[in-house]
């Protein structure tokens, strides 16, 4: 964890110790499981979308490193009340940011910007982006296990 500044470290440790929206979601209508074999991070994500395509509830369960857990915890907070299109936009921005893409926009990310620092640590990029890849799968209702080994970031 020494690669992160104190602020990032505090936030990440806080969410690791007290993950928000942790648990199963009764009545979930979207679900996906994610796995990052490089680090051993696992996440199970439940979403409840209403008829208008708004994410009403989101919960996750999982085990893994502090970054994967904190990223999932902060993602669930950011997603509540968002439309699917907005969530997809955040996924895209988050992905570009952690991949260190030139000119990456972070206008919709809010506190999630703390994960910008992982772009310098390729092994950590997968930890930070696992929850988002799992979200993408859940939104598309792909019921298989998603592995970060299948693609970049
Ligand atoms: Zn990890």
Task: Name the features.
four-stranded mixed β-sheet; binds zinc ion; Sufe protein. Chain: A; 153 residues; 39% helix; 4 strands; alpha+beta
Q: In the CATH scheme, what's the topology name?
A: Sufe protein. Chain: A
Name the helix and strand elements from N-terminus to C-terminus, one letter apiece: HEEEHHHE
Task: State the total count of DSSP E strands.
Answer: 4
Could you tell me which ligands this complex binds, including any ions or cofactors? zinc ion
Mean pLDDT, to the nearest integer, reads 90
Main sheet: strands, sense, barrel? 4 strands, mixed
Care to describe what's here?
- The chain is of the alpha+beta class.
- It has one domain (3-150): Sufe protein. Chain: A.
- The chain is 39% helix and 18% strand.
- It has four helices and four strands; from the N terminus they run H-E-E-E-H-H-H-E.
- The protein has helices spanning 6-17, 66-79, 84-98, 122-139; strands at residues 30-36, 41-49, 55-63, 145-147.
- A four-stranded mixed β-sheet has the order 3-2-1-4, with helices on one face.
- A hairpin with a 4-residue loop joins strand 1 and strand 2 (41-49).
- Helix 1 (6-17) crosses helix 2 (66-79), helix 2 runs parallel beside helix 4 and helix 3 (84-98) runs antiparallel to helix 4.
- The mean pLDDT is 90.
- The structure holds zinc ion.
